[in-house]
Design a protein that fits this description.
The complex is a heterodimer of chains A (about 475) and B (about 260). Chain A is mainly alpha-helical and about 475 residues long. Chain A contains 18 helices and two strands. Chain A has a two-stranded antiparallel ribbon with strand order 1-2. In chain A, helix 10 packs parallel to helix 13 and helix 12 packs parallel to helix 16. Classes of the chains: A mainly alpha (about 475), B alpha/beta (about 260). The structure holds adenosine-5'-triphosphate and magnesium ion.
C-alpha cells in the first residue's frame, strides 16, 4: 500500500519535472527553441527521468534489503535457544511474520486498534483465539516470545516504511534539482534521454536472459543432487523405468527418451505435410477471399488449449484407433497409444507450421516467381523448383521449432498415450514421455531428497538440452541460408 | 557524340512476328497503356524508348502475358503472335512464355547454382535428352551472355552470389537457354559496365539472326546501336514507331524529337 502511494508520489514529481525541465530550458534559451541543442520536450524528459530513475532504483534496493535487516533486528530480541539452529530460526521467523500479518489484518479490518495490537499480551489474552475470531487462522498457540517479536517486527517495519518514504522522495527531489541545475541550452538532453532508453531496452533483454540462467541453475543444482545419489550411467543408459519410493528404483531414461522421440516423430509425420501443403495452398494458390477465411480458421486450432486436445485424444482418437486399427490388425487393445498422442500433437502443430511457412513463402520475392513464369514454368514447377528451395531454410526452422514443441508437450501425452514407460516399436501401445514423468515424479506427497523425485530435474535438464539443441540448430539453419535471396 | 553513329542495318524481313492492335492496359483505375498498335518484326531488334513510367515495361509484359500475374491488371485489345491471338482461351500462357522469353529490369537469379539457373528452362521444357546435351546448352547460353569465362570454374556456386551485372547476364543466359522465338528484355544493361554492355549488345545482334528481340532501354545510344525499329512511348501512348534511323534522324512528332535531344524525360 505505502509502496503504491510512494510510486504515485514519484510519478507526480516526475510529471512536475517534465513541465519544469521543459520550461526552464526554454527560459534559458530566451524562449527561442532554435537555440536549444535538443527539442524542448527532451529537456522535460531529462528532468523527469533524473528524478524518477535514482528514486525508483533506491526504492527497489530498499524493498529487497528491508526484510533482511528487519529479520536481523527481530532475531536479536528472541531468546538464543530459539535462534541457534537455522531451521528452528526459519520456523520461528515464519511464525513471527504470520502473526505480524495477522495483527496487520486485524488492525486494517477494524477489529483492533493500533494501540491494542501493540499492547497485546499472552498473559492476559488468548491471542490465537482472538485472531481466529477476526478471521486470521494461526497454526499453533502464540507464545510470549513470538508475540513480542511480532510486535517488534511490526514496529520496525512501520518505521522503515516511513524512512523509506522520506528518503526516496528526497532523492527524487534532489534528482529533479540537479536536472534543473544542469539544464542549459547546450545540454545534450536528447542524447541523455536516448541513453536511458537504450538502458531500459538492455534491461529488458537482460531480465529475459537472467530468467533462463536462473532456470538452468535450479535444474542443474538439483540434478547434481540427483546424480550424487543415483549413478550417471544407469540413468542415461538404463533400459528400465520403475521408480519406487520404498527404494530399489530403476530410473533408466531411455524408455522415456524413446517414447518422446516416437511420439514426436509421428506428430511431425502428421504436421509437416499437412501444414506445409496448407501453407503452399494459402500462399500461392488461394484467392484473397479464400485466404481471408481459411487462414484464421486454421489458426483457430492454435488457440485451443492443449487439455482440450487431450480430451479429444482420450475420447475420440484413442478409441477410434483401437477399434479400427489396433484390434483388427492384432496390435493390441490399448486405448491410449503413441499413435493417438502423435496424431493429436501433429494436429496441434499444423497451424504452427502452416502459418510460419506461409509467412516465409510470402517473403520469397515476387521477382523470383516472375523469373520462373517468364521462361514458361507452370505454377507448380515454380513452387517446387524455385519457391520451396528458396523458402526451405525458413521452413526447416519452422519444422524444428514445431518438433521442440512436440517434445515438450505434456497434457496430450498424459491423456492420449498413458503413463507407462516402455520400449516398444508397436505404435498402438501405451508409452510415455519425459515431460509426463517429470510431472508424475513431482506431484503428490513427495520427499524432495529422494532420487525418485530429484530424477525429475535430471529429466528436465536433459529435455532442456535436447530442445535447446534443436532450437539452436533451427536458428543456425535459418541464419546460414537466409541471405540467399538478398 | 561518337556513340551516336547509327548503324546502317537492313531489316532482313518485313514479316510481323507480333501484331498488337488497340491495346489498353489498366492497373485498377489507372490507364497505363492507351490505344497502342504496333507490328514487331521477326528477325529484328525493336527498341522501346520513353521517359520513366510511360508504360514500356507494362506493354512489354503484355507480349508474354506476364501481366496475368498481377491481379489488378486488365488488358484489352488484340495481340497476335504469328497470327494467333495470344489472349485466346486456347492459348496456354505457360507455353506462350516458353516461346516469348523475358529478361527483367532487376536481376532475379534463383537461389540455385549457376548451372541449375541456366538449366532450369531446358529441364522443365524437356529440351534436352541427356546430361551432355544439357551441359552443352548451359555452356553455349553462358557464352552467349558473355558470362562463361567468369563462371566456368564455379558452376556449382549459387547464382545469388554473383555481382549485380553478372546476375543480370545469368538471367539473360537463363532466358536464352530456353531458345525462345521472341526475347523480351527490360533494360537488360542497366546494371552492366560498358564491356559487358557491349557483349550483351553483341549477343542481341546475334540473336537477331534467329529471333525477334524487343529491348527496353533508357540509353538512346544503345537503341541506336542495336535496334532496327524503335518505338517511342509517352504517357502510355505510342507516339511514334518506325525505322530506328528515321526516328533518330528525322522524327515526325515534336515529342520524339525533344525526348531524343534530351528535353523531356
Ligand atoms: N503493378 C502495378 N500496379 C499499379 N500500377 C502500376 C504497376 N506497374 C506499373 N504501374 C503503373 O503503370 C505505369 C507504367 O509503368 P511501367 O512500369 O510500365 O513504366 P516504364 O515505362 O517501364 O518505366 P521505367 O522506365 O521507369 O521502368 C506507371 O504509371 C506505373 O505507376
Ligand atoms: Mg520499366
Amino acid at each position: 500500500m505505502t509502496v503504491l502511494l510512494l510510486l504515485l508520489i514519484l510519478a507526480a514529481i516526475a510529471a512536475a519535472g517534465f513541465v519544469l525541465g521543459r520550461r526552464r530550458a526554454l527560459a534559458r534559451a530566451g524562449g527561442n527553441p532554435k537555440l536549444l541543442h535538443s527539442l524542448p520536450a527532451y529537456y522535460g524528459w531529462h528532468a523527469a527521468l533524473m528524478s524518477l530513475l535514482p528514486a525508483v532504483l533506491l526504492m527497489i534496493l530498499w524493498v529487497i534489503a528491508q526484510p533482511i535487516i528487519v529479520q536481523r533486528a527481530v532475531t536479536d530480541t528472541l531468546p538464543a535457544a530459539m535462534t541457534a539452529d537455522p531451521t528452528a530460526l526459519e520456523l520461528t521467523m515464519a511464525d513471527v511474520r504470520r502473526l505480524a500479518a495477522g495483527l496487520d489484518a486485524a488492525v486494517a479490518g477494524g477489529q483492533m486498534t493500533e494501540n491494542e495490537a501493540s499492547m497485546l499480551r499472552t498473559e492476559f489474552t488468548d491471542v490465537r483465539d482472538k485472531l481466529a475470531r477476526v478471521g486470521v487462522a494461526l497454526g499453533s498457540a502464540v507464545t510470549h516470545d513470538v508475540l513480542s517479536a511480532a510486535q517488534e517486527y511490526r514496529e520496525i517495519t512501520a518505521q522503515f516504511a516511513l524512512w523509506r518514504m522520506i528518503v526516496v522522495i528526497a532523492v527524487a527531489v534532489l534528482g529533479l534539482i540537479y536536472a534543473l541545475a544542469v539544464t542549459k541550452p547546450d545540454l545534450w538532453a536528447r542524447n541523455r534521454v536516448e541513453r536511458v532508453m537504450l538502458g531500459l531496452l538492455m534491461l529488458a533483454s537482460t531480465i529475459a536472459i537472467l530468467t533462463t540462467v536462473g532456470i538452468i541453475w535450479s535444474l542443474f543444482s538439483e540434478s547434481v543432487n540427483f546424480f550424487r545419489q543415483y549413478p550417471f550411467t544407469e540413468f542415461f543408459f538404463g533400459l528400465t523405468w520403475s521408480p519406487n519410493f520404498r527404494g530399489g528404483s530403476q530410473l533408466g531414461f531411455l524408455p522415456l527418451l524413446w517414447g518422446t522421440l516416437y511420439i514426436t516423430l509421428i506428430s511431425m509425420v502428421v504436421a509437416v505435410p499437412l501444414g506445409l501443403f496448407a501453407a503452399i495452398y494459402l500462399a500461392e494458390y488461394a484467392s484473397k477471399r479464400v485466404r481471408a477465411w481459411v487462414k484464421p480458421l486454421i489458426e483457430v486450432i492454435a488457440g485451443i488449449p492443449t487439455v482440450v486436445f487431450g480430451l479429444f485424444a482420450l475420447i475420440t482418437v484413442g478409441p477410434f484407433l483401437r477399434d479400427y486399427f489396433a484390434q483388427p490388425l492384432g496390435l493390441g487393445n490399448s486405448g491410449s497409444s503413441v499413435m493417438t498422442a502423435g496424431i493429436v500433437i501433429g494436429i496441434l502443430n499444423i497451424p504452427f507450421i502452416s502459418s510460419l511457412s506461409d509467412d516465409i513463402i510470402n517473403s520469397v520475392p515476387q521477382s523470383l516467381r516472375d523469373g520462373s513464369f517468364g521462361i514458361g514454368a507452370t505454377k507448380s514447377e515454380t513452387v517446387k523448383q524455385v519457391i520451396l528451395p528458396a523458402a526451405l531454410p525458413g521452413i526447416m526452422g519452422a519444422v524444428l521449432m514445431a518438433a521442440s514443441r512436440a517434445i515438450g508437450e505434456t497434457m496430450i501425452v498424459t491423456m492420449g498415450a498413458g503413463a507407462a514407460a516402455k520400449l516398444s516399436l508397436n505404435p498402438f501401445e501405451a508409452m510415455t514421455t519425459m515431460t509426463v514423468k517429470i510431472v508424475g515424479q513431482l506431484t503428490g506427497d513427495t520427499d524432495f531428497a529422494a532420487p525418485e523425485t530429484l530424477v525429475a530435474f535430471a529429466l528436465g535438464i536433459t529435455l532442456f538440452v535436447i530442445t535447446l539443441g534443436l532450437n539452436v540448430f533451427a536458428l543456425w539453419i535459418v541464419r546460414t541460408y537466409r541471405e540467399q535471396y538478398e | 557524340m561518337n556513340d551516336m553513329r547509327i548503324t546502317e542495318r537492313t531489316v532482313q524481313t518485313n514479316q510481323a512476328k507480333i501484331t498488337a492492335r488497340d491495346v489498353q492496359v489498366y492497373y485498377g483505375d489507372t490507364h497505363a497503356i492507351k490505344d497502342v498498335s504496333v507490328d514487331i518484326l521477326d528477325k529484328a531488334v525493336t527498341a522501346f524508348i520513353g521517359p520513366s513510367g510511360c508504360g514500356k515495361s507494362t506493354f512489354l509484359r503484355c507480349l508474354n502475358r506476364m501481366n496475368d500475374t498481377i491481379p489488378i491488371c486488365r488488358v484489352e485489345g488484340k495481340i497476335l503472335l504469328d497470327g494467333e491471338d495470344i489472349r485466346d482461351v486456347r492459348v496456354d500462357p505457360v507455353q506462350l512464355r516458353a516461346k516469348v522469353g523475358m529478361v527483367f529490369q532487376k536481376p532475379n537469379p534463383f537461389p540455385k547454382s549457376i548451372y541449375d539457373n541456366v538449366a532450369y528452362g531446358p529441364r522443365i521444357h524437356g529440351l534436352v535428352r541427356n546430361k551432355a546435351e544439357l551441359d552443352e546448352v548451359v555452356e553455349s547460353s553462358l557464352k552467349k551472355a558473355a558470362l562463361w569465362n567468369e563462371v566456368k570454374d564455379r558452376l556449382a556456386a549459387p547464382g545469388t552470389g554473383l555481382s549485380g551485372g553478372q546476375q543480370q547476364r545469368l538471367c539473360i543466359a537463363r532466358a536464352v537457354a530456353t531458345s525462345p522465338e521472341v526475347l523480351l528484355m527490360d533494360e537488360p544493361c542497366s546494371a552492366l559496365d560498358p564491356i559487358a554492355t557491349a557483349q550483351v549488345e553483341e549477343l542481341i545482334d546475334e540473336l537477331r539472326a534467329n529471333f525477334s528481340v524487343v529491348i527496353v532501354t533508357h540509353s538512346m545510344q544503345q537503341a541506336a546501336r542495336v535496334s532496327q525499329k524503335t518505338a517511342f512511348f509517352h504517357l502510355g501512348n505510342l507516339v511514334e514507331y518506325g525505322d530506328t534511323t528515321t526516328i533518330f534522324t528525322n522524327p515526325v512528332d515534336p515529342r520524339t524529337e525533344s525526348y531524343i535531344s534530351g528535353r523531356i524525360g
